[in-house]
Specification:
- Helix content is about 15%, strand content about 25%.
- With about 200 residues, the protein is of the alpha/beta class.
- The chain has one domain (about 10-160): Beta Polymerase, domain 2, CATH 3.30.460.80.
- A 5-stranded mixed sheet has the order 1-2-5-4-3. Strands 6-7 form a two-stranded parallel sheet. The chain has a two-stranded antiparallel sheet with strand order 8-9.
- Helix 3 (about 120-135) links the parallel strand 6 and strand 7 (about 135-140).
- The longest helix is centred in the N-terminal third of the chain and has 12 residues, at about 10-20.
- The chain is globular, with a radius of gyration of 23 Å.
């Protein structure tokens, strides 16, 4: 005998989330069968705690946390806050999901609360968002780079970060160690060749 798990309808999830969060939710939307909640930075931690514990929500698992840079959103026409953190939550007991988004109130120093006190799985996800976007998670016990090198300069997923980076490293046999130096690759735009010959490469 097998047990069949029935997914909770997104409309039911939306209603439960809206009832639990009340005015702590800035916006709740349903698109493509997915519920997205936007909260302010001041309400982020408390909203996450409610979503974890409230009846009808019970999002026991945090599946992912990622940073977002909106500076080039809508071809640069976007005029809202630049950095956001998006968390994806899963309720195993109710078989439902929700996306929780918060915008950092300061573009120059993006800071939001850490969720590590609620879900241990937030640890490395938040370190990744810090490393790649420079988003600081207040209350994180060990916020340091996780993917780039200790000597890395900048945050490579920011839209204004150069594709070639700022520095490159190589092994120097004379010094017997790895050294860092300014990038030697010239930035250039590569335009693919357009082939117009009818029989190019023996094709008929």
């Amino acid at each position: 005998m097998t047990n069949t798990v029935v997914s909770t309808a997104p409309e039911t999830t939306l209603a439960a989330v809206a009832a639990a969060l009340g005015d702590k939710a800035k916006n709740i939307s349903l698109a493509l069968g997915e519920v997205t909640v936007i909260v302010t930075a001041a309400n982020y931690l408390e909203a996450a705690r409610i979503l974890k514990d409230a009846p009808g929500c019970q999002f026991e698992q945090l599946m992912d946390v990622c940073g977002v840079d909106y500076s080039e959103y809508k071809m640069g026409d976007y005029d809202g806050l630049r950095y956001a953190v998006t968390s994806h939550l899963l309720s195993v007991s109710l078989n439902q999901r929700v996306r929780l988004r918060v915008f950092a109130p300061d573009d120059d120093l993006p800071v939001v609360d850490s969720l590590t006190g609620l879900w241990g799985s937030a640890n490395w996800f938040e370190r990744e968002a810090f490393d790649l976007y420079g988003i600081v998670f207040e209350g994180h016990a060990d916020l340091r780079r996780i993917l780039t090198d200790y000597g890395f300069i900048g945050h490579p997923f920011r839209k204004d970060f150069p594709v070639s980076g700022h520095v490159e490293m190589r092994y120097d046999p004379e010094r017997g160690r790895v050294i860092y130096q300014p990038v030697s690759i010239e930035p250039r735009e590569i335009t693919p060749r357009i082939i117009r010959e009818d029989k190019y490469g023996g094709l008929q």
